[in-house]
């Protein structure tokens, strides 16, 4: 009974809970950009400026989800704003699932290759798992459809292309740098899987 309440529309779209979720994600986004600070500085110093957009993957995914919640909190009537909101929501779902699962997988992969465990790793595992879970939960409250999902999928695949063409992918555990090609293949496969997961979640939401 209690579980069904926490899964209910009444609870998940309660404005107090939505604002709590908004600020948790907003703070996580800020922390994520700080986490990427050194890599962003390195990119600006050694790579063309335009590539900086593709560096902070997880915090940008978190930013998309944070912004997506605003369209739930404040439904709009403008067709243009609705379309913008739908694209942001689709990006939120695809990228949150993708980078949430990616970060957790990379941490465990690093450990499996003999990498050291740090307390920050467990924090990242918890926060990135939450990213993927919340995105799939909130699909049913988002308004995007197929076209927006295609746009989100193409953007995420473009991000993968930029990351592994120009070597601006997220810095990896030291033990994984000898397996960058395998990481790249896993990353692209995960992007496709995340697009499919978003599509299936969207399909299920339309039936509900």
UniProtKB/TrEMBL annotation:
The keyword Lipid metabolism does not apply. Coiled coil: none annotated. InterPro entries: DUF1405. Keywords: Membrane, Transmembrane, Transmembrane helix. The keyword Manganese does not apply. The chain crosses the membrane at residues 16-36, 48-74, 86-110, 146-162, 182-202. This is Uncharacterized membrane protein YpjA. It comes from Paenibacillus polysaccharolyticus. The lineage of its organism: Bacteria, Bacillati, Bacillota, Bacilli, Bacillales.
């Amino acid at each position: 009974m209690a579980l069904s309440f926490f899964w209910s529309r009444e609870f998940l779209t309660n404005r107090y809970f939505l604002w709590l979720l908004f600020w948790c994600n907003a703070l996580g986004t800020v922390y994520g950009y700080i986490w990427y600070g050194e890599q962003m500085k390195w990119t600006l110093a050694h790579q063309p400026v335009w590539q900086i957009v593709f560096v902070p993957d997880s915090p940008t995914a978190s930013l998309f989800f944070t912004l997506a919640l605003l369209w739930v909190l404040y439904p709009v009537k403008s067709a243009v704003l609705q379309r913008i909101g739908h694209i942001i929501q689709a990006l939120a779902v695809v990228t949150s699932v993708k980078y949430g699962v990616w970060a957790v997988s990379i941490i465990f992969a690093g450990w499996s290759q003999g990498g050291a465990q740090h307390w920050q790793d467990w924090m990242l595992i918890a926060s990135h798992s939450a990213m993927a879970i919340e995105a799939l939960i909130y699909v049913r409250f988002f308004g995007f459809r197929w076209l927006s999902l295609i746009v989100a999928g193409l953007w995420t695949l473009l991000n993968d292309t930029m990351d592994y063409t120009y070597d601006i992918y997220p810095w990896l555990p030291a033990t994984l740098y000898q397996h960058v090609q395998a990481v790249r293949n896993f990353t692209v496969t995960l992007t496709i899987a995340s697009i499919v997961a978003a599509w299936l979640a969207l399909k299920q939401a339309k039936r509900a």
